[in-house]
Amino acid sequence: MINPVIRPRRLRTTPALRRLASEIRLHPSELVLPMFVREGTGEATPIPSMPGVVQHTIDSARRAVTDAAASGIGGVMLFGVPAVRDAVGSGATDPDGILNAATRALVAEVGDALVVQTDLCLDEFTDHGHCGVLAADGSVDNDSTLERYCEMALVQAASGSQLLGLSGMMDGQVSAVRQALDQNGYVNTAVLAYSAKYASAFYGPFRDAVESTLEGDRRSYQLDPANRREGVREALLDIEEGADIVMVKPAGSYLDVLADVAAVSDIPVWAYQVSGEYAMIEAAAAHGWIDRRRAVEESVLSIRRAGADAVLTYWAVELATWLNERQAR
Length: 329
Ligand code: PBG
Hints:
Bound molecules: ligand PBG
CATH superfamily: Aldolase class I
Distance between the termini: 43 Å
CATH topology: TIM Barrel
CATH class: Alpha Beta
Shape: globular
Structural class: alpha/beta
Radius of gyration: 20 Å
C-alpha cells in the first residue's frame, strides 16, 4: 500500500478550507483606476485597442469617478489628453490645461471618497511624444526636464492632486519634485515614484489612449527589460530621494522585479498593470480563448502575491464590483 504521510491536498478539499487557507485576498481599496480625460465637450470616446476603456470628457469623468468611489476602490490616476501639443508640453503647466482642470473637477466631485492622483510626465503634452524636453541634439535633456516636472508638480498640487505619479524616469526627479513641493508649502502632497519603469512593448494601446505619437523610443530613460537588479536600484534610489510609494511597471511580465523590490522596500510598493496587459486578456477573452473573469482576477491576484500592496488596473471598478458581490454572498 502506498500511503503518503504528507498530503497538501487536504487543505484543498472544500471551498471553506480553501478560503481559510488562502494566503492573500483582493480588496477594492487596494485598486487604482487609471482614467483618460480629453480636452473638449461631448461624450466619452471609446479607445479601440482597449475595449471597455474610454477617453472621458470632464463631464463623463465626473460620473465615472462617482461610480468608482461607490465601488470602494482606493483611487484614480488621471491622464490628460490635450487638444494642442508643443515642444515643451506647455499644456502640462497651464492651470486650465486639461489634466489640471480635470483634477479640480474630480476632487470637487468626490472629495475624500477616494484618492485623486495625477500622472506627472510630459509625454501626453509634447508634440514629439517624449517624457521630457529635448536638447539641441534631439536627446531628452534630464535636468531641464526636471525644471518642467517641478512646475508641473506645483500646478497639480494646487489643483488638488493628493498623489503625484512621477512616470518620466528622469534621474533625480523624486528629490527635485519633493523639494519644490516642500518649498511651496505642499508638504502633504505625496509622491508615487514609477521607479522601475521598463521600456516596454506593453504600453502600445496607451499611446492610442492619449493619442501620442513618439519619435524614436524611450530606451535612453526607461529601463532595459533585461535588467532585474537595476529595477531594485532605481527603487532604492527613489526611497532615498523621499518617495512615499515606489512602483514597478509593467506588472505581469516583471513579477520578479516586483518581488525583489517588495523584499527590500520599507515603503509601500505598487504595480501598474498596463494597457497591453489589459488588451491581451480582453482580446483573448473576446475570442473565447480564455475565461475573462477568471483571467482578470488571477492576473491581479498574481501581482498582489508577488508583493504589490496596491495595483493600478483598468479593471479596478469591475473587479471591485465582483469582489463586493462575493462579499455580499
Ligand atoms: C507616461 C506613461 C505611460 C504609461 C503611463 N504613464 C506611457 C509610456 O511611458 O510610454 C503607460 C500606461 C499603460 O500602458 O497603461 N506618461
